[in-house]
User: What shape does this take?
Amino acid sequence: MARIILASSSPYRQQLLHKLGLDFQSCSPNIDETSRPDETATALVQRLAEQKARAVATQFPQGLIIGSDQVCVNQGQILGKPGTRERAKAQLLAASGQRITFYTGLAVLDAANDRLHSMVEPFSVLFRPLTEAQIERYLDREPALDCAGAFKCEGLGISLFERMEGRDPNSLIGLPLIALVELLGRFGVDVP
Assistant: This one.
């Protein structure tokens, strides 16, 4: 079996991939993640997931490389990682009472044969109506400045939701494991 490489330096994606019990190595892809004019959220994440896998393939020409990228969309607007408390608060205020959709692009590349399979996994959360005080308390306890949408569903962020919709909640963290198992199976990797 080819060596499995995760084209990501994200500790969240690494933690998720460990759940599958696979031996893997991580490598940062260092690509330009700028969206193109008029590029949809789904087209963006699929393109970036594929680009990440291909960028790492130059270092691991015999590897089975996993690329992933995610965006958060609220009312047609793509949200990035907030980076600051002020932006996190603004994202959460805008999400209050809204359905937010996350799109995660996933690509698996057999670098030796240049065989690629990719897809986009959607996952939605319906935020409950939130007060400014609730948002402030949340940010005091779990800033989540490095997470698109300004929350961590695997932590206290779950308290912000009314409902979650989708086939794999791991998608919210950045690596849809159900889809990944399917794609790895196309390359002969049988999990478990």
User: Anything to note?
Assistant: The helical segments are 11-18, 41-57, 85-95, 132-141, 177-185.
